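Study this one:
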Amino acid sequence: MTVRPLAIAVAACCALHTAVAVAQSEPPAATSAAGSGGLSNPAIVPEVPDAPPPRLPDGTVDLTGIWSGGGPIGNIADGLLPGEEIVLLPDSEALMKSRLSRDDPEANCLPTGVPRIAPYPWRIVQHPPHGPATHLFFLFEGNIHSYRQIFVDGRGHPDDLDPTWYGHSIGHWEDDTLVVETIGFNDLFWFDFAGHPHTEQLRVIERYTRTSFGTLENEITIIDPGAYAKPFTVKYTATLRPGWELMEYICNENNQDVPHLIGPPGL
């Protein structure tokens, strides 16, 4: 089976988030095109053009492509905008302090939720491909090979949502920024490897701006009155990976981390 570099393959969760993030920032090692994924010509990784973001025929910015990064991995606080702070309510603070690294849902091959991201590439797919889009899909290589579905056809949220890992997402354009609002979450995923919690009251506002051909900025506002005394906003950057393809990565087949996760999260 074709795998990514060892530092990535071993990190099914974010226990080794620093090493993994560095490894993922480099081109993938040469792999067989006959394997389960990888590049059609793995010896050549095209450089990202120094160019403005592409646009669709209707004038909207084209977000399609394979990206790496764009969300919290180790600690969501690392992305705080100037002047922002994370203020946990007492019960949530106690919950966070009680958590153990081995209990991280991502370490156990469960979805990352929103806005957390695994240290693996992910793809944005738009439907219809030439716009105007009605749906956007985020396809994740990591963990359970999962996806997010974002409705950009003008619909609202349903009145009665069953709580889920990725929630229910609707989007709209504000100039060249895609604004995505997601509600309907369960309370099971962690925001990061540090163990920041949330409740089912969570509401996430993401603002995706492709500032250049190879750069996608994601400004994220977390609103959860059940866990935090006030909203807070973080910002992360994703990098385009031309020439990469998503590989089949099944966390349950590759997870070597959990037996080594000892102590509180974030260590």
